[in-house]
Amino acid sequence: MTHVKTGLDRLLADPAHILKGRRVGLVANHTSVAADGRYGWIHFQEHDEIELVKLLAPEHGLYGVAQDMESVDSSVDPGTGLSIHSLYGHDEESLRPSPELFADLDTVVFDIQDIGSRYYTFVYTMAFCMEACREAGVRMVVCDRPNPINGHQVEGNCVSEGFQSFVGQYPILNRHGMTAGELACLFNEHFEIGCDLGVVHMEGWQRDMWYDETGLPWVAPSPNMPTVSTATVYPGMCLLEATQLSEGRGTTLPFEQCGAPGLDAYRLAERLNRKNLPGVQFRPQFFKPGFQKHQGELCAGVFLQVTHRERFKPLITGIAVLRAISQDFPDRFAWRDKPYEFITDIPAVDLLYGNPELRGHLLGANLSLLDIEQSWEPDTQAFLPLRREYLMY
């Protein structure tokens, strides 16, 4: 098996030319793991040539304990005694670090594992730190890590103007096929953040690799991202967060299964299997969430068995699931009615999808799944040449 060397490990092998004599802030969580299995911040603190001043943590906190959209307070790290500044607090303003937070630093290092879907918030924490670095006159260094669902497949549409949020801050495809380091360069140059940016590249990673082909240990980036299989379906099944349906949170199979009380699991699976969606089969599934939506209730629905992950299209599959439930079980289907990522005036589904069209697509019986896919083509064709400019591997 190939053994990929992450940006963190390359940085730790020779930190002097980047970090020697500099006061450093590290934006990280528990995925910042070096080749020896220890956290990056432990290495930084122990290294004679690195002065680690503070830690900054994204959604879910430094150790990935908090659930989705759960506010995290700033605190002190028990392992190092360093202050942890939460970049996911109690309001939208807390998502953006102030330049004053970086005033006592020379360099901010970012090392967090992304999962390759536009919704995942870590890359926007990265972007907001880049903006603060620009204002503070501080250098930003991104330690690159693999895109776990490979770096060559793309799918979806871009976020439209007026629908930017913490699950879609920039007009990139839903499944973008880029690494965090590549996205940092895209954000910095094309979207004109304009900070002093450096990226520490990986060694040995190839674009067609899935995470389980890298030789790296999988560390669940968030509480409901336990496996590479979860990440594989997430670009489509995350759309269920915008509904009252359970996306499997509170179970051991989040996003791979979904449902609600009162659905006919066999009928739903049969309808979806008739669609002959590539690389996936559906089986009737029953589960009882231990927390969040439908906690303690018996839910009926489907499990997504990905049979060929190279052919599998997660976004159109997620849309097919939503359409089948909304059309066949309209009395059991409802959109989320609570704020989403601190936004109250735009429906969650519009924020996730990037525009209001999906709600109409689900109800439009005359619009096929192929029609929906084809509606993404202008965005895809516009994004691909731009994306190509920033690919590093």
Automatic annotation (TrEMBL):
InterPro entries: NamZ, NamZ_C, NamZ_N. It comes from the Bacteria. Residues 233-393 form the Peptidoglycan beta-N-acetylmuramidase NamZ C-terminal domain. Signal peptide: none annotated. GO terms for molecular function: peptidoglycan beta-N-acetylmuramidase activity. Residues 24-228 form the Peptidoglycan beta-N-acetylmuramidase NamZ N-terminal domain. This is DUF1343 domain-containing protein. It comes from Nitrospina gracilis (strain 3/211).
